[in-house]
From TrEMBL:
<dbReference type="GO" id="GO:0046512">
    <property type="term" value="P:sphingosine biosynthetic process"/>
</dbReference>
<dbReference type="GO" id="GO:0042759">
    <property type="term" value="P:long-chain fatty acid biosynthetic process"/>
</dbReference>
<keyword id="KW-0378">Hydrolase</keyword>
<dbReference type="GO" id="GO:0017040">
    <property type="term" value="F:N-acylsphingosine amidohydrolase activity"/>
</dbReference>
<dbReference type="GO" id="GO:0016020">
    <property type="term" value="C:membrane"/>
</dbReference>
<dbReference type="GO" id="GO:0046872">
    <property type="term" value="F:metal ion binding"/>
</dbReference>
<dbReference type="GO" id="GO:0046514">
    <property type="term" value="P:ceramide catabolic process"/>
</dbReference>
<feature type="domain" description="Neutral/alkaline non-lysosomal ceramidase N-terminal">
    <location>
        <begin position="34"/>
        <end position="545"/>
    </location>
</feature>
<feature type="binding site">
    <location>
        <position position="475"/>
    </location>
    <ligand>
        <name>Zn(2+)</name>
    </ligand>
</feature>
<keyword id="KW-0746">Sphingolipid metabolism</keyword>
<dbReference type="Pfam" id="PF17048">
    <property type="entry name" value="Ceramidse_alk_C"/>
</dbReference>
<dbReference type="Pfam" id="PF04734">
    <property type="entry name" value="Ceramidase_alk"/>
</dbReference>
<feature type="active site" description="Nucleophile">
    <location>
        <position position="286"/>
    </location>
</feature>
<feature type="binding site">
    <location>
        <position position="126"/>
    </location>
    <ligand>
        <name>Zn(2+)</name>
    </ligand>
</feature>
<dbReference type="InterPro" id="IPR031331">
    <property type="entry name" value="NEUT/ALK_ceramidase_C"/>
</dbReference>
<keyword id="KW-0479">Metal-binding</keyword>
<dbReference type="GO" id="GO:0005576">
    <property type="term" value="C:extracellular region"/>
</dbReference>
Amino acid sequence: MKYILLLTALLVVVSSAVKIQIENNVRLEDNSDFQIGTGIYDITGPAAETGMMGYAMPGQVTGGIHFRLRSRAFVFIDSNGNRAVYVSTDSCMIFQAVKIQVVQLLEEHFGPNVYSHENVLLSGIHTHSGPGGYSMYALYGITTLGFYKESFDAICEGIVQSIIRAHNNVKPGKITAEQSKLYDSNINRSPTAYLNNPAEERALYENDVDKNITLIKMVDTNGSPIGALTFFAVHCTSMNNTNHLISGDNKGYASYAWEKLFNNNSLPGTGPFIAAFGQSNEGDVSPNTLGAFCPDGSRCYAPDSTCNGKNEGCKGIGPGKDGDMFESTQIIGNNQFQKALEMWETASIPVQGSVQYRHTWLPMTNITVYPPFTPTAEPATTCRAAMGYSFAAGTTDGPGAFDFTQGDNNTNGNVFWNFISKFIAKPTEDQKQCQAPKPILIDVGLTKPLPWTPDVVPIQIITIGNIVLCAVPGEFTTMSGRRLRNTVYEILNAQGSGIENPIVLVAGLSNTYSGYIATYEEYEVQRYEAASTIFGPHTLGAYQQEFAKLATSIAQNNQVEPGPFPRNMTGHTFFFLPPVVYDEAPGGNFGAIYQDVGTTYAVNDTVTAVFYGANLRNNFMIESTFLSVDLEVSPNQWETLFVDGSWETKIYWKMHVPEIAQSLITVEWTIPPTISAGTYRITHQGYAKPSMFSDKLVPYSGQSSTFTVTA
Ligand SMILES: *[C@@H]1O[C@H](CO)[C@@H](O)[C@H](O)[C@H]1NC(C)=O
Ligand SMILES: *[C@@H]1O[C@H](CO)[C@@H](O)[C@H](O)[C@H]1NC(C)=O
Ligand SMILES: *[C@@H]1O[C@H](CO)[C@@H](O)[C@H](O)[C@H]1NC(C)=O
Ligand SMILES: *[C@@H]1O[C@H](CO)[C@@H](O)[C@H](O)[C@H]1NC(C)=O
Ligand SMILES: *[C@@H]1O[C@H](CO)[C@@H](O)[C@H](O)[C@H]1NC(C)=O
Ligand SMILES: *[C@@H]1O[C@H](CO)[C@@H](O)[C@H](O)[C@H]1NC(C)=O
Ligand SMILES: *[C@@H]1O[C@H](CO)[C@@H](O)[C@H](O)[C@H]1NC(C)=O
């Protein structure tokens, strides 16, 4: 009874959400058009001392910024006023707590029934060079020493601000799409697992990764660019696990380069045109296109990616000269950008129809999967979450990622791990059987008092006309993504579905993170991606079955059950990174020069200035900058040409050992050929915490001597 009441209440909510009237907006005459809004906002979190999200490597902590991270939002409204928003963030992934917090903040801002769990899709590009600490579930917080509230807030608030900006600038526009192929930009990092998929199935595809790239082009009624949204499956692991600088990796670079071009060289994050490079089924897809090599230059042993039986030495190498990770990032990013730009010129697939959305929370630990989504004619079931042994071995993009491979008394001094290890559960017989053939390393679903990973996960479909976005709560491998797309495509391509020529896309790492999703056959091989497929061998089958229900509901124009809302993790988190105690500079002169610039430089030179500064995590300088490179345009008139969001600059933070509490801030600027000759200077600004007895922060700034750049 209660259930029926709840369901009725939810249906009322859902159906009223579908009929939102847009104020101050003319109803569009032409059914083929949309109203489109775009917004961008800074989500760069703590740039010092914070564990980075992705490689799960203790000690890989932030120590400066290469370029800033952004949230890019696209609001789509159809001619009946139905709206949905897609957001791509320069983050590793979206955690459940982020989605819940963002929806809560949006409801506070806009009132109920404008933006909800159902019509908001949040996705991460999967950069491995952003600050972590924004997961409330323990597994994804181990190497960041737990949940870092300020890091979480920076991401949530930035996403909300990008949506508010998009909401406030909706205007009538047109959408066209284009599909093409991009080569030399991704390879499969677990090809032996891929090979275990049936030969007939593999024969349908040219490659063991998707080369398909899809562009969604948005222009206003005058044909002027509003935004671009590109999907291509590749890990953002061009920056390797030795990096300490915050970076959007290859997709962040692609966005940066395109926005710079179309916004006429305006400072990063400021122009009206927005280009997002959304993540897709990148689970087994690496940007390190030269392949994986051992320290002696030989190829790794392919089946388990080892060198002489050890995984540590085997690493994937990008296309940059001598494996330079900055150059690799730029090459893989530029490849995506240039191809998308080429597709922008020719885009011709009409995107027409309505904006629709379906969303369900799935109790993923116990879904009964029926044929045809099982490998046999028998029903099967998903399992309580568990991680396999290969998970600890890492991948060729980041070997030996976790520090607990040696057994549970080798904690390498990680205080969070020391603390949490007493809660680890021994797997039960049922669990071992359910997860077989996976050897269980951590039974993350059985840890007390709370599981380490989510057990209820969201699935969602958003359609923008014939563009069909399947939001998946994790990393689908290449073949998993294809199977999911095929399932949804068959349903929506059928006559009477209301969608003509659907273009079905996987929007990866969306709304919640729950590890990888390998196919049943890949699971048998138990490489990293399978070991990290936490809900067992039938995980993909369950997703196909449940996504089929969402697609059918769209085709039949009815609603789906909302499913159980996930547990509230607020208040059940831990954090072991001590706060900044205090900052110190000689004579209290924060911003004073430690090492000045030279006098004359030329194109391709790198100018370096070092300042006495403060801890960069005192204030994240959101929508601002820790540095500027200024040109003297007339006597004592300076124009800022580069900031810490620029590719050409880097800012490094480090403790000034052996001084206690002193920070040295190094600013580097590599002079690009486009620059005019003249007089320049470098500045640094930030906030210091001068007293250990007060939380008060004081702003400071400093500047280098002036220097000359010759033509
Ligand atoms: C790639 O895109 C084409 C359309 O251009 C489509 O027919 C094909 O199914 C796609 N292939 C994959 C593997 O997604
Ligand atoms: C960039 O410059 C071109 C040519 O002057 C102009 O048409 C366009 O509107 C400008 N775009 C922006 C975003 O300022
Ligand atoms: C990371 O890249 C740098 C070059 O940018 C290289 O020197 C280093 O060996 C690489 N490390 C790993 C673990 O791949
Ligand atoms: C799983 O769900 C079935 C019903 O679908 C129920 O009978 C069973 O007890 C559940 N098992 C667990 C472990 O929750
Ligand atoms: C702890 O590690 C040592 C080797 O470093 C090993 O001999 C011992 O058995 C381990 N103890 C437990 C409880 O795992
Ligand atoms: C979760 O709990 C916290 C307090 O414990 C509360 O403030 C918050 O609103 C709750 N969130 C949801 C979505 O219920
Ligand atoms: C700067 O470096 C680029 C790339 O290495 C090179 O093509 C260019 O010729 C260099 N320019 C000058 C002036 O040295």
